[in-house]
Design a protein that fits this description.
- The protein is α+β, with helices and mostly antiparallel strands and 139 residues long.
- The chain has seven helices and six strands.
- A hairpin with a 3-residue loop joins strand 5 and strand 6.
- It is extended.
- The N and C termini lie far apart (48 Å).
Length: 139
């Protein structure tokens, strides 16, 4: 890119996580718009990103993880825990390794009890063998 062209962008997006990438893609649907997308981490084309078990190598690695440290938590004996956040193209979505944990039934029911109709487990989580439009057949 020439020096002259380098300074001419309509938008500068800092952070190429999921939201930054989607925003850049949407903005560039207009061929007249120039977008600069900045990311401090590496590309996400490594085997560790593409292999689900690789997420455990990415988490805790300064090259791919921001390694945020949370405040001390008295309910955890005053320990300070690490909060992983992806530092690469795709952000945390690139490092989650397709890790999936279904929510606790009690949490869904608590949300319904607190005034969110339809959020109870009966309304939000399909039963065994049910076809779920979000999570596929049999949830």
């Amino acid at each position: 890119m020439s020096e002259e062209a380098a300074g001419r962008f309509d938008y500068v997006i800092v952070g190429a996580g999921s939201a930054g990438c989607v925003l850049a893609a949407r903005l560039t649907e207009d061929p007249g718009v120039r977008v600069l997308l900045l990311e401090s981490g590496p590309r996400n084309d490594s085997l560790m990103v593409n292999m689900p078990a690789g997420s455990f190598k990415l988490m805790g690695a300064p090259r791919t993880d921001w390694l945020y440290e949370v405040e001390a938590d008295e309910t955890r004996a005053g320990r300070r825990m690490m909060w992983s956040a992806g530092r690469m193209l795709g952000g945390s979505s690139a490092m989650n390794g397709m890790v999936y944990v279904r929510g606790l039934r009690r949490d869904f029911d608590d949300w319904a009890d607190e005034g969110c109709p339809g959020w109870g487990v009966a309304g939000a989580v399909p039963g065994p063998g049910a076809d779920c439009p979000v999570c596929g057949v049999a949830g």
